[in-house]
């Protein structure tokens, strides 16, 4: 699994002209899923996301997690995170899991992230044409990959 985390002061996702999910301060998480992903990837990535200390404490130091600040999470499926640009100018997305594999993993990830955070997460809709609006706070943007745990 690959994720791009953006610390935001607000964010929303709109589908077909209607707001599907919105948060105030917190994290927008773009999530890519590949065929090799397992329950262990879900567990590791979800735990890292909710406990990652990228929010400022009273001294202005990034020392608090989204869990500690009471912030929200807006989770968006993003198959293009597995784009390969190795050959030519048109990206290949063969590294991304097909919907029949990805959707059940995405749903399990939502459930795990909700449990780890201790409150519901907002989501987009898998496979939909989504418009994501956000105000990146900092800016703080971090990439994570469950297969390259740095």
Question: What do you see in this structure?
Answer:
With 150 residues, the protein is an alpha/beta fold. It has one domain: D-tyrosyl-trna(Tyr) Deacylase, Chain: A. The protein contains three helices and eight strands; from the N terminus they run βββαββαβαββ. The strands form two sheets. Strands 1, 2, 3, 6, 7 and 8 form a six-stranded mixed β-sheet that branches. Strands 4-5 form a two-stranded antiparallel sheet. A hairpin with a 2-residue loop joins strand 1 (2-15) and strand 2 (18-23). It is globular.
Task: Supply the key terms.
24% helix; globular; single chain; 150 residues; D-tyrosyl-trna(Tyr) Deacylase, Chain: A; alpha/beta; two-stranded antiparallel ribbon; 6-stranded mixed β-sheet; 3 helices
Strand portion = 35-45%
Integer-rounded radius of gyration: 15 Å
**DSSP strand count:** 8
Overall geometric form? globular
Poorly predicted runs are none
Q: Mean pLDDT, rounded to whole units?
A: 97
Oligomer: single chain
Q: What pattern of helices and strands is seen along the backbone?
A: EEEHEEHEHEE
Which sheet architecture does the biggest sheet show?
6 strands, mixed
Number of helices: 3
Q: Pairing-aware structural class of the strands and helices?
A: alpha/beta
Under CATH, the topology is which? D-tyrosyl-trna(Tyr) Deacylase, Chain: A
What CATH architecture would you give? 3-Layer(bba) Sandwich
Broad CATH class? Alpha Beta
* C-alpha termini separation: 13 Å
């Amino acid at each position: 699994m690959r994720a791009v985390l953006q610390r935001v002061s607000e964010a929303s996702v709109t589908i077909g002209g209607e707001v599907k999910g919105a948060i105030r301060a917190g994290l927008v998480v773009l999530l890519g899923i590949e065929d090799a992903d397992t329950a262990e990837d879900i567990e590791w990535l979800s735990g890292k996301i909710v406990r990652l200390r990228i929010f400022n404490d009273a001294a202005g130091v990034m020392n608090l997690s989204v869990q500690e600040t009471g912030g929200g999470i807006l989770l968006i499926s993003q198959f293009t995170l597995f784009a390969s640009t190795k050959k030519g100018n048109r990206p290949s997305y063969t590294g991304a899991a097909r919907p029949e594999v990805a959707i059940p993993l995405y749903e399990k990830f939502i459930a795990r992230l909700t449990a780890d955070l201790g409150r519901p997460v907002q989501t987009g809709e898998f496979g939909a044409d989504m418009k994501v609006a956000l105000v990146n706070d900092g800016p703080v943007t971090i990439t994570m990959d469950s297969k390259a745990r740095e």
